[in-house]
Amino acid sequence: MATHLIPKAASGEPINVRRALSLKITVAARQMHKSFDQSVAAIGVTRSQWTLIAVISRRPGVTQREVAEILEMSEASVGRLIDRLCSDGMLVRQPKEDDRRAYCVHLTDAAATLLDKISGVAMIHEQAIFAGFEAEDIARFETYLDRITTNIAAMR
After folding, report:
1. How does pLDDT run across 38-79, given as a tens digit for each residue?
2. What stretches of 2-66 adopt beta strand conformation (E)?
3. Spatial contact of 67 and 80, defined as CB atoms under 8 Å apart
4. β-sheet bridge partners, residue 95
5. Residue 63 near residue 82, CB atoms below 8 Å
6. How crowded is residue 121: how many other Cβ atoms within 10 Å of its Cβ?
């Protein structure tokens, strides 16, 4: 690699390119979350709510414990959020057939309507975020992110 292409700090010291890229990914993810959260707040939804609804839409009948694992939250926090969304008419709990102690969580029609609105907001964000990207760029980027995700999982 040509030395003039190595990024330098203000002090003239070389910057670790991998660390700089890691920070960019982290910052981009935060910016995406913040922007999306602000947009869905306009339709009355918080990040905790939309992420929970998204998980349940992809995994109907999931248990509270499974949701907690997926969202990397405590079971108690997820339980309170599910309680709130049940009382708001967005979710219903149903007994799990093979485990009398557990309940499966499902979306209601009201949540499905809300999910359609959330999906519309997501589509607008995705179009803006990936503006100027060709299909090949996105496919290559997905491959890189998959590799990073695999590498992170291997570290655990």
Report:
1. 999 999 999 999 999 999 999 999 999 999 999 999 999 999
2. 62-63
3. no
4. 103
5. no
6. 16
Mean confidence (pLDDT) of the chain: 90
Which tokens belong to 118? 């959330």
**Which is higher by pLDDT, 36 or 3?**
36
Specify the pTM.
0.76
Contact 54, 118 (CB under 8 A): yes
Assign 81 a pLDDT band (cuts: 50, 70, 90): very high
Which phi and psi (to 5°) does residue 73 adopt? Answer: -125, 165
Q: How many residues does the chain have?
A: 156
For residue 79, count CB atoms less than 10 angstroms from its CB and return exposed for 0-12, middle for 13-18, buried for 19 or more: middle
Sign (positive/negative) of CA torsion 117, 121, 124, 130? Answer: negative
